[in-house]
Every structure is written in C-alpha cells, then in structure tokens.
Design a protein that fits this description.
globular, alpha/beta, Enolase-like, domain 1, TIM Barrel, 15 strands, 405 residues, ten-stranded mixed beta sheet, 16% strand, 2 domains
C-alpha cells in the first residue's frame, strides 16, 4: 500500500481564501487533493496542517483513513474545533481521493454506489425590492431549479432600519443601518405572501435567517411563515441556542435546516436523534471531512432527517465535489446548496463538478475525479489581497450590540 510522503498546502483564489491540501505518496504519480478552505482564517488552518498534522502523518499508510482521522482528532488533546476540523478534513478528502485512485473507482462507488442519477441543488435568489426578487426567482424557475432560496437584499434584509429612522442613543456607536427583530418579523412574512401571490405554491422556496433573530423572535417567525409552506427555513437559531428548536417543533410545522456553523457532534446529534430539525447543513470541511460526514448521513437516515451540506460563495470546488460524492451515495440526501465559480477559477480544477440548471453532476473518474493545476493556482493568487485580513460583516442593533451571524 502507498505511504504518505508529503503534505502540501496550496493557497489560491484571488484573495487567497482557498486552501487546497495535496497529499503525495511514495508511489509515483499517486496523490490526492482535499479542501481546507477558511475564508477568515486560512493562514491559521495552513499552519495547523504544516506544523501539527503533516509531521506526524509522514510515513503512515495512506489507506488507513479511519485510523488517521481518529488519531488526528485527539492529536492535540482538545478537539472538535473549527480549525482542527478543517485541517483534518483537507487531509481526509485527499486520502479518499487516493483510495479511489488505487481502487480505480469514484469515491461514491467506495461509499456503496450511487442511489440517484444526479444531485439536486437549490439556487440563491435575491432582490432589493419585491419586484426584483420575483423576477430573480422566476429566472431560476425557468432554468429548471427544483428549490430556490429567497432573500430580501443582504442577510438580515427586511430587518434593517436606516440610520436616520432608528431610535438610537445619543452616543450611538454604530452609524449605519441597524437590525431590528420586529421589522424582520413584519417584512419577511410579507415577502413570502407577495411571492406566493405572484408565483403560487408550485415553486419550492427556502429562506436563510442567518441566526440574526433573538430566540423568542425566531420561534415567532417560524410560526408566521407556516402558511407559506417553505421547503425549509435555514439557520433560524445560532448554535448557542439550538435548544429552542424544541419549542419551534411544538409551535409549528415549518421545516428547519440547521448546521452551517456546526463543528461539534454535541451540536447536531441531539437535533437529529430528537428529530428537531429536518435538514443538516454542516459544511463537509468544517465537519471534519468525508469520514465523519458519511456517518452523519447514516445517522440522519435512521431518524428521518435529510442532508443539505453547506456550500456558499466562499467555498471551493474540491469541497463541493466531496459533498457531491456523499450526496450521490447517501439515501438521506435532501438537497445540495449550489455554488457558482468564475471560469478562471474552474480552470484550476480539471474534472470539477458540472452544474446544469438545478442539478450537479460528478464524473466517473477514480477518486474525487478532479485535479489541481498548481501553476494556474499560483497565478490566480493576489499577494496584496492575501496579506489583507478578512472579517465577517458586523451587523448591530440600535443600542450598538452585535447581531450574531
């Protein structure tokens, strides 16, 4: 069997936020790639791989995926954090890629074979006015997307009050628009009422709250949206407040999708086993890779919960492909978040997943079925942007307190 010879990190995308892991073996030409991207802390993840993981893995059997994952999880004693999970995931995906190449089979075949012909995806529609939103939703309907997410402007849109209209303290810290829970509760149900009046109940629609609401208001929103029959309501609560899903379940039947920020089994296992959510939305890399996420998918199947692995604009094509392989092989698959990349970005990854309308297609090549052009990856990178720290947007309420995303 092949042994791990080298673990290499490649930073790419123009802003340097994509971190691709390449695991090379002692067999000529045999290597695998994985995703360890983190939009805000890519350099920290890279250090974790190069300084902590790589030294202890060189010389180990590349095929011992489960053992490498389990020993890596406890290698720093503290575990289940976003940085270590992402570092482990990058190596884990690469090892599955190698395993598939050795077997001459796609990863989804190693996982038991496909149980569907393609991966259904949901689109992201938005607009700064209700008319613009309807137009964008209709565009995706015409393109054949089975499920469409609907947002009124940016995350929290519909809940922002202009600075000059907000009731602020005289020593206000924040000079921009402020987020107001009650405004959100007023405007988002009106948004769906408008959409259903214009489009009917045929289109399957979702909405992402992005954890902006206080827990009691989150419960109220789920109830208010029940008449509009959403496909699911996404990230209604922050990870710190998931116990409130019990109350949501008692109050309404609006389907719930949760998990974009999950990194610890203690966050998602109770929600699955108590059937408090309907879709799990962990990002494959943040969950620790293919190895643990295939177990999450199996757990979901037992309890009637479905997967909707998270993607989003900051993710890369390697993580997307890892999700696609799990989607094809998991009976508990529900829907996949779509992602769009610029042509020059896709050129880095020969064999990348293909998005046609509302479906994503993997290929039948061994492993993950894709490669990385390192020369193009280096050319795409902007050293100036790479050196610029990245932080998530700070939304605030009228009194200046931060809204947790």
């Amino acid at each position: 069997m092949a042994k791990i010879n080298e673990i290499r990190c490649i930073r790419t995308r123009a802003d340097g936020t994509w971190l691709i892991v390449k695991v090379l073996t002692d067999q000529p030409g045999l290597y695998g790639i994985g995703s360890a991207s983190d939009h805000y802390q890519a350099g920290v993840v890279q250090a974790a791989i190069e300084q902590h993981m790589a030294p202890r893995l060189i010389g180990r059997e590349a095929g011992h995926i489960e053992d490498i994952w389990q020993s890596s999880l406890t290698s720093g004693y503290w575990r289940n954090g976003s940085i270590l999970n992402t570092a482990i995931a990058g190596v884990d995906m690469a090892l599955w890629d190698i395993k598939g190449k050795e077997a001459g089979m796609p990863v989804y075949q190693l996982l038991g074979g496909p149980c569907r012909s393609a991966v259904a995806c949901y689109a992201h529609a938005g607009g700064n006015t209700l008319e613009e939103l309807v137009e964008d939703v209709q565009r995706y309907i015409d393109e054949g997307w089975p499920v469409i997410r609907c947002q009124f402007g940016p995350y929290g849109g519909g809940g922002f009050i202009p600075h000059d209209q907000a009731i602020k303290p005289r020593n206000a810290w924040h000079q921009g628009p402020v987020f107001d829970d009650e405004a959100y509760l007023e405007n988002i149900p009106k948004m769906f009422e408008y959409l259903r009046n214009k489009l009917g109940f045929g289109p399957k629609l979702t909405h992402d709250v992005h954890e902006h609401l206080k827990p009691h208001n989150a419960v109220a929103l789920a109830k208010l949206l029940e008449p509009y029959r959403l496909f699911f309501l996404e990230d209604l609560l922050s990870p710190e407040q998931v116990q409130w899903y019990r109350l949501v379940r008692q109050q309404c039947t609006t389907p719930q999708a949760m998990g974009e920020l999950f990194v610890n089994p203690h966050e998602y296992v109770p929600l699955i086993t108590e059937r408090l959510i309907d879709y799990v939305r962990i990002r494959i890399s943040k969950g620790g890779g293919i190895t643990p996420c295939r177990k999450v998918a199996a757990l979901c199947e037992i309890f009637g919960v479905q997967t909707a692995w998270q993607e989003g604009g900051d993710n890369d094509p390697v993580n997307q492909m890892a999700a696609a392989h799990l989607d094809l092989a998991s009976y508990s698959f529900g829907i996949q978040e779509e992602n769009h990349f610029r042509p020059e970005e896709l050129e880095l990854f020969p064999g990348h997943a293909e998005q046609v309308g509302g479906y994503m297609y993997a290929n039948d090549k061994p492993g993950l079925g894709m490669d990385l052009d390192e020369e193009k990856a280096r050319k795409l990178l902007s050293t100036e942007s790479l050196a610029t720290p990245k932080y998530i947007t700070e939304d605030r309420r009228a009194d200046g307190s931060v809204v947790r995303p």
